[in-house]
TrEMBL record:
Modified residue annotations for 4-aspartylphosphate: D140
Residue intervals passing through the bilayer: 6-27
Residue ranges of domain Response regulatory in the record: 91-206
Name of protein: Response regulator
BP GO terms, sorted: phosphorelay signal transduction system
Classification via InterPro entries: CheY-like_superfamily (IPR011006), Sig_transdc_resp-reg_receiver (IPR001789)
Length: 206
């Protein structure tokens, strides 16, 4: 019955044949097509992916109360798009005593294809580093009542020969700190964090 209806439609309008063929091809090869297209270019039906990326970035900016203008936001998102191949399958360790406050940033990284593990303490971070190789570390600075817990983690990593680049993602009142020796960067802004991670991953994979 369905076949008769389809044949009738094609007889009535030859162009319907091409529409049906395109629909069938999209449904049949959806997964391969999506794996070829860049995941963060926003190329999707009704721009859903682009909207998701901007929404997560905006939420991160609001949570951090960071002074990020629209131009800087768009520049960071374009960088994320261009560096999609660098983020894809990258292993990132996120060290933070309150990781729920940085869920939006991690959502962006995962959307770009990175694997992001979370550690709430220095001890947990070192344990994870013992069991898995990471391409980059994002860490807060103040943790467990210690204003320099991030530096302690950095020192412990070097003692154990864990050498992935470390980016400190700090609160606004710490933004004026110098980038610590042997750290890759320090920032309180989500847009700068994306740039720093892209730089670190590109350098590590070059």
């Amino acid at each position: 019955m369905v076949q008769h209806i389809i044949i009738a439609l094609i007889d009535a309008s030859p162009s319907a044949m091409w529409v049906l063929l395109v629909v069938w091809l999209v449904l049949r090869f959806e997964k391969p097509i999506r794996s070829v297209l860049p995941r963060v270019t926003g190329v999707s039906i009704f721009g859903v992916e682009a909207s998701f990326v901007r929404e997560e970035m905006d939420k991160a900016i609001v949570r951090k109360a960071a002074p990020v203008c629209t131009e800087d936001r768009e520049r960071a998102l374009r960088r994320l798009m261009r560096a999609e191949s660098v983020f894809r399958d990258a292993a990132i360790l996120w060290v933070d005593s309150a990781p729920e406050l940085r869920a939006d940033e991690r959502a962006l990284l995962r959307f770009a294809g990175a694997s992001v593990d979370v550690a709430r303490s220095t001890a947990e971070a070192l344990s994870r580093l013992e069991n898995r190789g990471y391409d980059a570390i994002v860490s807060d600075m103040k943790r467990e009542g210690d204003p320099d817990a991030g530096l302690s983690l950095l020192s412990a990593m070097r003692e154990r020969s864990f050498l992935p680049p470390v980016i400190f993602y700090v609160d606004q009142d710490e933004a004026g700190r110098e980038v610590p020796p042997r750290a890759f960067d320090l920032t309180d802004r989500p847009d700068v964090l994306l740039h720093a991670l892209a730089d670190a991953l590109e350098r590590r994979r070059s």
